[in-house]
UniProtKB/TrEMBL annotation:
The lineage of its organism: Bacteria, Pseudomonadati, Pseudomonadota, Alphaproteobacteria, Hyphomicrobiales. GO terms for molecular function: ligase activity. Belongs to the ATP-dependent AMP-binding enzyme family. Signal peptide: none annotated. This is 3-methylmercaptopropionyl-CoA ligase. It comes from Mesorhizobium atlanticum. Its EC number is 6.2.1.44. It catalyses: 3-(methylsulfanyl)propanoate + ATP + CoA = 3-(methylsulfanyl)propanoyl-CoA + AMP + diphosphate. Transmembrane segments: none annotated. The keyword Metal-binding does not apply. Keywords: Fatty acid metabolism, Ligase, Lipid metabolism. Gene3D superfamilies: 3.30.300.30, N-terminal domain of ligase-like. The keyword Cell wall biogenesis/degradation does not apply.
Length: 538
């Protein structure tokens, strides 16, 4: 029997609070001359990145930033945005990266709610920042110009001056407790005000290590940052790639041309993106705009990718792994691991297997489906539908200034995702819908994702979204919003006949609306807007 005597207490030598800041110091020490960041015509080594982060952290402290203060950022994926993921924490502050596609009123709400002490702005986002600051009702944050295209505002503090300042013998303010808040990320706010999600240092550290293990990363990847760093801190890949001493290629504007160009120019080996990015690549390839020079590994998340898109993008030479997560879980916590037993399946069947969301990440304690009403776990039979609930160390601390929402999210000792799925005997989860997106027609549950997946298989369809539309007889029926590929033609009758070949009659959409679908900056289709649109149609 082991006696836990007082002298066996944690000590400074054997108990160091986990923080991703540690990755930067280790990598700069071991690989000082390796290229860390490629940002257009700029190159920075890992030693230069560490020094720039130290200088920025010291500059923030000189500006009066104190531990726990919030530093907000409005910027696309740039070197400055990447470095903020370390420098702000090194000053003991909390990083708040803001979606640059939000409206000024929502951004002003975020700044007020977060009580931001500093706002760092890339010049690309200057119009949004100026419109936002005119709406701020609380204390005005200190404005820092991050540089970028165009002219900066006169008389403000320049980031370039801060990082060029000497920071002799700078000592980062490492967390005394790994539960200390590292980041404040706001949800997309698709209904009502966005909620502020609080991350701790421990979770970010473990997310990075979990990604290395789960994605099977090794060596020094060349990573193209296509995932917006304002979204779940770019899935935590800033910290992951720093731990690996990777080379990070920044990408301001996401397009098939930019992605393929980076692959060709810099030898990109990995990138992440929503299914809309995969669709973009498929369409570019169909137009014979590129041929992939070498195999590239891709992580996709944000919305369940249709099997048809996975099939086509893999045929181009991309090795895709689907993951699942939420802002509240630091990004991905479930992954679609490939089983070699599936190698012999035909291409279409293999794509369908990959379309399942998968099993829990190495750093996710549990991922189960529960009955929403009784709170009991459901069987892993591939048919019982329930809410995905999670436990693990990469789940948020809670919602900023919202105790009620936090308690509701953690009811029953698990985190409630709000996503409906089935779980198979092998443990794989397959999302069927958001709870609010399930269509109940004549007492039957219809998965909008199942109907969308069929529509995506039609050769003329670029994007599809299915929502519930009120029906006097059935209560609700599926209503399909369809975006066609450029130059393609398809009628409602065409799609109806196609769906009849693949779906039960009650699942076939009763209405088809052809238009460009509204999407968030991360590629998610904004279904809440489509629900309102559906109400307007007879």
């Amino acid at each position: 029997m082991i006696d836990e005597a007082p002298y066996l207490r944690p000590r400074a030598a054997n108990h160091v609070p986990l923080t991703p800041i540690s990755f930067l110091y280790r990598t700069a020490d071991v690989y000082p001359d390796r290229v860390a960041i490629i940002d257009e015509d700029r190159r920075f080594t890992w030693l230069e990145v560490r020094r720039r982060c130290e200088a920025l952290a010291a500059g923030l402290i000189r500006l009066g930033v104190k531990p726990g203060d919030v530093v907000s950022v409005l910027a696309p994926n740039t070197a400055e945005m990447f470095e903020a993921h370390f420098a702000v924490a090194m000053a003991g502050a909390v990083l708040n990266t803001i979606n640059i596609r939000l409206d000024a009123e929502t951004v002003a709400y975020i700044l007020d709610h977060a009580e931001a002490r500093v706002l760092m702005v890339d010049r690309q986002c200057r119009p949004l920042a100026e419109a936002t600051l005119a709406r701020v009702t609380g204390a005005m944050p200190t404005f820092i110009d991050l540089g970028g295209p165009g002219d900066g505002p006169a008389g403000c503090i320049r980031h370039a001056d801060l990082v060029q300042s000497e920071a002799p013998a700078f000592v980062p303010l490492l967390p005394a407790d790994e539960w200390q808040t590292l980041c404040l990320n706001y949800t997309s706010g698709t209904s009502g005000r966005p909620k502020g999600v609080l991350y701790h240092h421990r979770g970010a550290y473990l997310m990075a290590l979990g990604t290395i293990a789960g994605w099977g990363l090794s060596g020094h990847p060349t990573y193209l940052y296509t995932v917006p760093m304002f979204h779940c801190n770019g899935w935590g890949h800033a910290w992951t790639m720093t731990a690996l001493a990777a080379t990070i290629v920044c990408c301001r504007q996401i397009s098939a041309k930019a992605i393929v160009g980076a692959i060709e120019a810099f030898g990109v080996t990995h990138f992440g993106g929503a299914p809309v990015v995969l669709g973009m690549l498929v369409e570019a390839a169909e137009a014979e705009l590129f041929t992939l020079p070498h195999a590239v590994r891709v992580m996709t998340a944000g919305a369940p990718p249709p099997a048809a898109i996975l099939e086509k993008v893999e045929a181009l030479g991309f090795d895709v792994m689907q993951v699942y997560g939420l802002t509240e879980t630091y990004g991905h916590v479930v992954q679609s691991i490939w089983d070699q037993a599936w190698d012999g399946l035909d291409f279409t069947r293999r794509a369908m297997m990959k379309a399942r969301q998968g099993v829990r990440f190495p750093t996710t304690e549990s991922a189960e489906i529960w009955d929403a009403q009784s709170g009991t776990r459901l069987p892993q039979d591939g048919s019982a539908m329930g809410e995905i609930v999670l436990r693990g160390n990469t789940i948020m601390k809670g919602y900023h200034k919202d105790e009620a929402a936090t308690e509701a999210a953690f009811a029953g000792g698990v985190f409630h995702t709000g996503d409906v799925a089935v779980q198979y005997p092998d443990g794989f989860l397959e999302i069927k819908d958001r709870i609010k997106d399930i269509i109940i027609s004549g007492g039957e549950n219809i998965s909008s994702i199942e109907v969308e997946s069929v529509l995506y298989r039609h050769s003329a369809v670029s994007a599809a979204a299915v929502v519930a539309k009120h029906d006097v007889k059935w209560g609700e029926t599926p209503c399909a919003f369809v975006e066609l590929k450029p130059g393609a033609n398809a009628t409602a009758d065409d799609l109806n006949q196609f769906c009849r070949q693949h779906l039960s009659g009650f699942k076939i959409p009763k209405h088809y609306i052809f238009e460009t679908l509204p999407k968030t900056s991360t590629g998610k289709i904004e279904k809440y807007k489509l629900r309102e649109r559906a109400k307007a149609f007879p």
